[in-house]
Amino acid sequence: MTADLARPALPLRPELAGLEPYGAPQLDVPVLLNVNENPYAPSDAVVEDVARAVADATRTLNRYPDRDFAALRQDLADYLAVESGVRVAPEQVWAANGSNEIMLHVLQAFGGPGRTALSFSPTYSMYPEYARDTSTAWIEGRREEDFSLDPDAARAAIAQHAPSVVLLASPNNPTGTALPTDTVLAVLDAAARVPGGCVVVVDEAYGEFRRRGTPSALELLDGHPHLAVSRTMSKAFGLAGARVGYLTASTAFVDALRVVRLPYHLSAVTQAVARAALRHAPELMAQVGSLRDERDALVGWLRERGLRVADSDANFVLFGTFDDRRAVWQGLLDRGVLIREVGPQGWLRVSVGTPQETAAFKDALTQVVGLAATGNEEDR
Ligand SMILES: *Cc1c(COP(=O)(O)O)cnc(C)c1O
């Protein structure tokens, strides 16, 4: 074949041929309950402090920022100590432009050609994309019918596939299911037996929404140098637009991520915004308690109407099942309520919004599927 010099071919990687960029639809409707954002905008006090911090950072934008963002890592370590009672050193903290970039760093450092990443579906639909983008083979194990993870099945999958990276979302997206400590310990033990090594990332993007008594994997960091726990400021913190995710692990784990990050990946403006916001952590997180209550009430309301609802430790609820979930999703959208068509066949996911938004969702759902309270909660 001779080259057409007027129209040279683009040497696209074959595995990317024909693919569309992935993402939730961004539609302009009154009630947005589709991407698990915090429905409460930052207060005026937060806005003022962040704006002042950005102004200060702007004065030195002719210079590159601190490549290792020591001050931000210290602030994040302090925040985690308050949130979870687990104290880590700043050298054990890593940050990036959203936890999706964190995951990319993990796969760049520990995945790659000839290596395998493993997770258990249904789970976060971005994981296979991070694997693809880093030329890491992707294996999807299965969760159980009730979306829990069977420790023995997890052990067997890890032994069979010998991955170098295991990704566990807890609370899981889109199901809301959190993992018990014993399950994470079983995975860590199986990972430690993989010849050549295997890291385990527990993605706690929704960690702050966990119900009382639900553990955080942060408590397991000690003694498990192959464990990392990732968090984000996008959800409970209400800062999705700032793009700040972070991870905690052993210093050796974090040092590996420092090798693969792009130089100056975290802009001076991003660092300033994150640090200013962290000063307001209690205020930014004030709604977490009411969002949790709102979630539990929504789970009850849906169950009272005979729907199946997955237990949720997150700020969203997976419910169903519908023969034609697309029609239900569309019916809600026609009434100005955008939720997410995601997860196993027949299920839909709705984020917990303000009480007004939740009311709008309930009204719309009642109209679309003709719901009536049955009076007896279906236990599932
Ligand atoms: C929303 C979400 C994230 C957060 O992504 P950011 O890039 O930090 O905004 C991470 N993991 C899961 C499972 C999520 O649902």
UniProtKB/TrEMBL annotation:
It comes from Cellulomonas algicola. One of its GO terms (molecular function) is pyridoxal phosphate binding. Belongs to the class-II pyridoxal-phosphate-dependent aminotransferase family. Histidinol-phosphate aminotransferase subfamily. Its cofactor is pyridoxal 5'-phosphate. It catalyses: L-histidinol phosphate + 2-oxoglutarate = 3-(imidazol-4-yl)-2-oxopropyl phosphate + L-glutamate. It is an enzyme of class 2 (transferase). The modification N6-(pyridoxal phosphate)lysine is found at K235. It comes from the Bacteria. The gene is hisC_1. The keyword Cytoplasm does not apply. This is Histidinol-phosphate aminotransferase.
